[in-house]
Amino acid sequence: MPSCTVTCVLLSVSGPEGENQNTFCIINLQIFLANSTQILYTKDRDSIHLSEIKRKEYTLVLRYSTQCCSTCVEDILRKMRKFEEQYPDIDILLFTTYRVQIEKKDFQRICRFFPKVYNVFSLGIPLDEEVVPYLFVLDRGMRVIDTFIPDKDLPKLTNRYFERITTTLSRNKAYNYKYYK
To answer: For the whole prediction, is pTM greater than 0.85?
Structure first.
């Protein structure tokens, strides 16, 4: 597993009378997905290498597995759909782990809403071991940045994360639809 350096950006949501209600951290893992030959699987069960996925310079990624809390996954998927509707030019990938046939039906259902969904056992990111859904931005150099673990009980914080990363994602030279492999 690659080593990483963790730096945090604190974001907060203020409550009544300016009280700081919730503070959270965007984690910059300083990790690269160096294994660009890693095999992913499409909804049709075709294999594809990570490096072959057409994507923009900065791509928002949701990573989860069926071992994660199902209500947490459903919650973040709903938020991702709203985010995608609001920002249709932003590139979104979903990396999931489905292991049995019944779970594959869920995989097919999600593919209807998100065209870029891939099944993968592990990305080699330390958070994979935590069995929680998480978000990150993947840059053109395969660097994982702006990692965030959403909490369904703190929706304002997830919204604040989306606001923050919109700045990064809107810097995409890809608004002219230049894709990177």
So the answer is: no
